[in-house]
Amino acid sequence: MVTTNGTKISGFLLVGFSENHHLQLLHALLFLVMYLMALTSNVIIITITTVDQHLQSPMYYFLRQLSLLDLSFISVTVPQSIGNSLTGNGYILYGQCILQVFFFMSLAWAEVAILTVMSYDRYAAICFPLHYELIMDPRSCKRAVVAVWVSGGISGTLYTTATFSITFCKAKVIHQFFCDVPQIVKLSCSNDYLAIIGVVVLMAVAALACFISIALSYLHIVSTVLRIPSAEGRSKVFSTCLPHLFVVSFFLSTGICA
Length: 258
Known about the structure:
This protein is mainly alpha-helical.
């Protein structure tokens, strides 16, 4: 039961895109198709980069981690949204909402972190080819991935702790198909949401540092590629960066739209 008493929180009500049952079924179908497509593509990438012995370089190792993160990220919210649309019931338990916020924010930050690591990998491969194997040795790659997951966990913990430390004194209705932090904060009618503002500012600064690092890496990469005498050589080297550039661009565009 969703209550309005700040001391008796039993759950939240997620308000989806429409209350019309036919539109809810359409939403469920579209989300199911997109989820299955994302699930299939990421599983294929993970499988190929794990099985194929020719794809064991750091670039593919990080790509496998990115696919794992992306697979986990969409699985946090989309399946439940599909279920809610099919059943017409948007109720979510308080504990489930906490877990959803934790994993959503953890994985979102981890994706930013792994994209930063991947840009550094391309920078080291193109700008320092003779020292690349020394710079990106297996131990360094594993440490980088551990740092990505740990930093994601820290981010999720900060967001979750700050978000659910506020006092809810409004109807527990979230106008989103998942437990969205900004929507949850709107349920507070006091100034105890200052903690979440502090976390947002901290993570925004960290994200800005990551994107500056990515931009600087590619400035050095472009500068190095332009010094290659043959057009064929420039094209071959720069083509190794295109997948990462596409992912970064897609991530930024979806983030801005969100």
